[in-house]
Amino acid sequence: MFDSLSNRLQDVFANLGREVRLTPETVEIALREIRMALLEADVNFKVVKAFVDKVRDRAVDAEVLKSLSPGQQVVRIVRDEMLALFGDTQGGLPPVSATPRVILMLGLQGSGKTTTTGKLAKWLVKQGKHPIVVSTDVRRPAAIEQLNLVAKQAGVRAHDPAGNLDPVSRASGAMQEARTLGYDTIIVDTAGRLHIDDELMVELEAIKAAVQPTDQLYVADAMTGQDAIKSAGEFNRRVGVTGVVLSKMDGDARGGAALSVVSVVGVPIAFTGSGERLEDLEAFHPDRVVSRVLG
Ligand code: GDP
């Protein structure tokens, strides 16, 4: 991920660094290269345009162009603006006063929702929390089994009342159990679809109304690039999204989704997933990603 973008941008920066004097024209040549590199990395075209315009506004400035190392100044501006793309976020989950904390997991089928539910449970245990998980994916019995298995691997309890195939009552039951037995966090895994459909949205709205989640995490498969972002926007409009988990960052995704998600959907990246193991979840740190892209 980001390898190709990173190589391209570093070439641009090396060329800029060699210029003793920068002119609006040389800046424009570099901006054109940056624009191409971002588009080829599958960054949303509106995001690319706004990004390049902002860098241009700041770079084509007499002070910058006349400075001792104008190339480095432009590189710094690119770095600042790339950080700004990720919004003001520290990654992970924001502190809440509500107990129990209720986290609703949202996403398309195959995006990595169930795996991420297990990863998040494990992450929470490491933070000293006591999570309980529940699957509301009643259409695919295998989904409930999968979550039970993942919960076992993570060493957490899965709420799974035998024979209860009502998504809302399963989620409410988990709330009840958490309150009775003293769990402080409930992670509600939900059904996904290959494509968004109204029936699913109605179901998610009903679960949301029943459990009043504190967090609504949308799991986006980084490999699906712009499509993942489009669906995130749809989920945000219908159900609401408070944070995004970008899964499958270990694949050969070009990285555009990660760089576009905040501008397009308006919510920060909370976590990234980079493998199938339960350990492969990290709170998102924009500065680390920017360093990876820009060197
Ligand atoms: P769900 O349908 O959204 O619940 O998706 P699953 O959790 O069942 O994941 C679908 C597939 O993606 C499974 O084979 C997972 O092992 C795999 N997967 C999930 N997260 C990651 C990740 O971060 N990296 C990789 N390489 N595979 C992942």
From TrEMBL:
Alphabetical keyword list: Cytoplasm, GTP-binding, Hydrolase, Nucleotide-binding, Ribonucleoprotein, RNA-binding, Signal recognition particle
Reaction catalysed by this enzyme: GTP + H2O = GDP + phosphate + H(+)
A GO MF term: GTP binding
Compartment(s) where it occurs, according to its Swiss-Prot or TrEMBL record: Cytoplasm
EC number: 3.6.5.4
Entry's Gene Ontology cellular component terms: signal recognition particle
One of the GO biological process terms: SRP-dependent cotranslational protein targeting to membrane
UniProt domain SRP54-type proteins GTP-binding: residue ranges: 268-281
Annotated positions binding GTP: 107-114, 189-193, 247-250
Similarity comment: Belongs to the GTP-binding SRP family. SRP54 subfamily.
Description of its domains: Composed of three domains: the N-terminal N domain, which is responsible for interactions with the ribosome, the central G domain, which binds GTP, and the C-terminal M domain, which binds the RNA and the signal sequence of the RNC.
Quaternary structure, from the entry: Part of the signal recognition particle protein translocation system, which is composed of SRP and FtsY.
Described purpose of this protein according to its UniProt entry: Involved in targeting and insertion of nascent membrane proteins into the cytoplasmic membrane. Binds to the hydrophobic signal sequence of the ribosome-nascent chain (RNC) as it emerges from the ribosomes. The SRP-RNC complex is then targeted to the cytoplasmic membrane where it interacts with the SRP receptor FtsY.
Protein name, entry field: Signal recognition particle protein
Portion of the full-length sequence here: 1 to 295 of 458
